[in-house]
Amino acid sequence: MNESPSHAPELARPRAQAERQAGSPASASVTILAMEAASPYPSLNPRAAYVGSSILLLLLMVPWSAWAAQGDIVSVDNWTEYPVGVLPVSGPGKWKIYSSMKVFKHPPSIVIDENRRALLLKTDHETMAIGRSIHADIATTRILVWDWKPLVLPAGGDVREHAAKRNDQVARVVVWFDASLFDARRAIAYIWDSSAPAGTIIRDRGPHAERVLVVVRSGSSGLGAWHHETRNVYQDYRDIFRDEPTQLLAITLESHSDDVASQSEVLFGRVQFRAR
Asked: 165-183: per-residue pLDDT in tens?
């Protein structure tokens, strides 16, 4: 489907945010490209969009929600409550599969790396996304903090080349927001891209949601090492959408290699929201 949301206004160009990119040089470029209308969910084609929509609804209905009062730390996960091995993504657990593919060659797993527990996402010509419901006051617990360690980049992946089917990344941390009275559901995806420079911002508007992809890190520099990231999601939302954030709904952790027919592998450490 190549239609934009009927009630979603055009977005103004946000201020350059390269100075706030963790690990990115201050001179990094900031680019917004209007991409072809795509599925409202990462790496889903329009025929599979209803799958993503249904799964998001399930995410919001499960009892494993993270709630916080103003100023509290909201833990998305630190992986300490799971045994080493395959992560449960069915039944009553926190995490659910959030991609069109449901069976993987290497299912999401908990591993020990450098004396820390981590989530391993490993794909082979696949799209992998898991998500959970998160509820917090983003105006107060506005800082998203996470650790990640990319191991294998999808060869040829480039967030700028959605039309050419090269929009694959080794890692995405995606924050989902509820729809407002006049706008579709929105999401900000913080990504490690194979090619696009840090500071690149891509807007992906579909018929049911509007997603903005922000390149936090890029390329093979730092491959195989842990990196600590901090983003002011509240400020990013205001800068990108020129609006106050709506209710925070969910967060997804993702790795993609299907478009470029390649492989990807990444470790995620602790993920949390905090006041500062």
From this structure: 899 999 999 999 998 777 7
Q: Which residues pair with 250 in a beta bridge?
A: 133, 176
Q: Are 220 and 140 in contact (CB under 8 A)?
A: no
- pTM attached to this predicted model: 0.77
Sign of CA dihedral 55, 61, 63, 69: positive
User: What would be the CATH architecture of the domain defined by 28-274?
Assistant: Sandwich (2.60)
Q: What is the reported pLDDT for 85?
A: 97
pLDDT digits (tens, 9 = 90+) for 101-124: 889 999 999 999 999 999 999 999
Cβ atoms of 204 and 212 within 8 Å: the answer is yes
pLDDT mean over 135-146 = 92
Average pLDDT over residues 18-34: 39
Q: What region, left, alpha or beta, does residue 260 occupy, with left being phi > 0 and alpha being psi -120 to 50 degrees?
A: alpha
Distance CA 127, CA 54 (A): 17
Query: Cα–Cα distance between 133 and 94 in angstroms, integer?
Result: 8
Q: 232: which strand partners?
A: 143
Tokens at 34, concatenated: 């209007």
- CA separation for the pair 200, 203 (Å, rounded): 10
Residue 254: name the closest of 160, 76, 130 by CA.
130
Helix, strand, coil shares of the chain, percent, nearest 5, are 10, 35, 55
Region 20-26: mean pLDDT is: 37
The rounded distance, in Å, linking the Cα atoms of 127 and 72 is 33
Supply the pLDDT for residue 43: 34
| C-alpha span between 91 and 105 (Å, rounded) | 20
Residue ranges covered by each domain of the chain: 28-274
